[in-house]
């Protein structure tokens, strides 16, 4: 690649990065402004007001909301990793009747938008008495078709000699999975964990409709939505609350990029 091509590539990268970072930079800068500076100072604030963050934090129980989201997201992530590894291991390395049909059915679930499942899931949760409980926030998401697919692909590319050696030593299938296949495939597992956690943390529609009568279990996105509806005229305060809510997501994403790269390189999409 020539020097001119490298320069063009770098310039394009800077332009694309700037387009994605500009809204975030505007949000952070505006969250430090006075309400009257929103239109008079469209970008840089004249007087910094870090007190907006203290006021936003105290205006709603964001600490409780974030603990709820942390508990729900962590539980969902653990269960998705468990079910994905177990199902992916079985589909990749075990032989049983209907294996291809089951895998095709799992792939088919990826084509169903979650919005289509809102009503049947809500009716099921209502009949089971799960509404306004943590179970309603967790149970519908304990398995992931994408997670099963990802782990199947990763396990299929793991050298089969590792399993054969372990079986010669008398290891059970579960021992092979947890002692060999999971440690070998930490990159795709870590990527799946991050994607699952972020998806659960950012979920809004389902938590909104199943926590209508129990504010104590509201996750952070629902709490933020309620806060924004109450503080609709104070834009800096709204943006300060938004920055508080998205800060864990930005931190996790910043430290997890290497896992996505390793996962893409190691798991691939080969059958």
Describe this structure in words.
This protein starts with a helix and ends in a 5-residue tail after the last helix. It contains 14 helices and no strands. 75% of the residues lie in helices and 0% in strands. The protein has 271 residues and is mainly alpha-helical. The protein has helices at 3-30, 37-40, 51-59, 62-93, 99-109, 114-127, 134-138, 145-156, 160-168, 173-184, 186-202, 205-210, 220-230, 235-266. 27% of the residues are buried. The chain folds into two domains: 16-49, no CATH class; 50-266, Orthogonal Bundle (MetI-like fold), CATH 1.10.3720.
CATH topology of the largest domain: MetI-like fold
Count the DSSP helices.
Answer: 14
- How many discrete structural domains? 2
**What is the correct CATH architecture of the largest domain?**
Orthogonal Bundle
Portion in strands: under 5%
* CATH class (first level) name of the largest domain: Mainly Alpha
CATH 4th-level superfamily of the largest domain: MetI-like
The termini sit apart by 33 Å
- Derived from helix and strand composition plus strand pairing, the structural class reads mainly alpha
Instruction: Sketch the topology as an H/E string, one letter per element.
Output: HHHHHHHHHHHHHH
Parts with pLDDT < 50 across at least 5 consecutive residues: 267-271
Rounded to an integer in angstroms, the radius of gyration calculated over CA atoms is: 23 Å
Q: Which word captures the global form? A: globular
Give the oligomeric state of the chains in this entry, treating copies of one chain as homo and distinct chains as hetero.
single chain
Largest sheet: none
Fraction of residues in helix: over 70%
Q: Give the mean pLDDT.
A: 86
**What is the β-strand count?**
0
